[in-house]
């Protein structure tokens, strides 16, 4: 941690937001574009487990659940290192790290847990070739939008979102990092019929975490006692995670995440969009949503 803070201090005045460039029609952060050949040619291993999400859809939450499962409920092992150090983010290079996460991944012994926000059609081909297991978590569009907006506000990695209304327009048109939420969730939904993908919903995990954790265990062909499962549920609850510096990102360099502006783990409750959308914005968003999701069979709910 001392070394991370040292790097943070030396970089603090040099960091500028990472703008986006398009890769096959999808806006990605510039470092991803610059090392796209390396990302595309990343060599997966057959026992890799991939956590895939659109940004701000429960990624860190699922990482904590999987870490607890992998460590048989030993929460002390899961509290030793901040989450983005445990699970390489295969398409990104963090400013405080000397090398990209995909290179760090090469040094990690199997089995690895890897993270990505890439849409399904941009996933490195070796992941499909090795038939890796993938857990995809989808979150309803309205809450995802709200969370993404606040994340833009508090991280130095992304540009200032300007106004809430402006960011809402960009989100709907897919002019944000990782592109269209609609294309992302639908692309992975279609991919699940061809690959080893467990498709989960943020709201379902919130409503019944035990049921969804059993789905994960079945998918991973792993068995844990009910006591350990209950321990995982407790350790990965919003209340506990928000107080855990390794999950809440308060242990991360302060120049990356400014928690005085907004928390990395902010609310974690479906339905917060109601505190942000005006009636007119909600009507406009609903109309746009119906158009973009026409014919899709994805069962999203916007509150529980």
From TrEMBL:
Its main location: cytoplasm. Its EC number is 2.8.2.-. The gene is LOC100952422. GO terms for cellular component: cytoplasm. The keyword Cytoplasm applies. It comes from the Eukaryota. Belongs to the sulfotransferase 1 family. It holds the Pfam family Sulfotransfer_1. Residues 46-295 form the Sulfotransferase domain. It is an enzyme of class 2 (transferase). One of its GO terms (molecular function) is sulfotransferase activity. It is found in: Cytoplasm. InterPro entries: P-loop_NTPase, Sulfotransferase_dom. Keywords: Cytoplasm, Transferase. Gene3D superfamilies: P-loop containing nucleotide triphosphate hydrolases (3.40.50.300). The lineage of its organism: Eukaryota, Metazoa, Chordata, Craniata, Vertebrata. This is Sulfotransferase.
């Amino acid at each position: 941690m001392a070394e991370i803070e040292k790097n943070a201090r030396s970089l603090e005045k040099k960091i500028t937001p990472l703008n986006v460039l398009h890769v096959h029609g999808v806006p990605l952060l510039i470092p991803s574009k610059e090392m796209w050949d390396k990302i595309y040619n990343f060599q997966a291993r057959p026992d890799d487990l991939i956590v895939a999400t659109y940004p701000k859809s429960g990624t860190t939450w699922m990482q904590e659940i999987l870490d607890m499962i992998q460590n048989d409920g030993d929460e002390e092992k899961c509290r030793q290192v901040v989450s983005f150090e445990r699970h390489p983010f295969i398409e990104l290079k963090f400013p405080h790290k000397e090398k990209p996460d995909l290179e760090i991944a090469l040094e990690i012994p199997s089995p690895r847990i890897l993270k990505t926000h890439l849409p399904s059609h941009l996933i490195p081909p070796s992941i499909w070739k090795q038939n890796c297991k993938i857990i995809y978590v989808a979150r309803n569009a309205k809450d995802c939008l709200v969370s993404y907006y606040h994340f833009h506000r508090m991280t130095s990695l992304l540009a200032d979102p300007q106004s809430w209304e402006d960011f809402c327009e960009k989100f709907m048109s897919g002019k944000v990092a990782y592109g269209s939420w609609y294309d992302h969730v639908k692309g992975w939904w279609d991919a699940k019929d061809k690959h080893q993908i467990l498709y989960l919903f943020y709201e379902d995990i919130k409503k019944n975490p035990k049921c969804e954790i059993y789905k994960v265990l079945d998918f991973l062909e792993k068995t844990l006692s009910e006591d350990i499962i209950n321990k995982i549920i407790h350790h990965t609850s919003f209340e506990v995670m928000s107080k855990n510096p390794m999950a809440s990102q308060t242990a991360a360099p302060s120049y990356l995440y400014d928690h005085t502006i907004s928390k990395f783990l902010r609310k974690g409750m479906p339905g917060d969009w109601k505190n942000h959308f005006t009636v007119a914005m909600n009507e406009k968003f609903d109309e746009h949503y119906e158009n973009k999701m026409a014919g899709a069979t994805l069962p999203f709910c916007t509150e529980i």
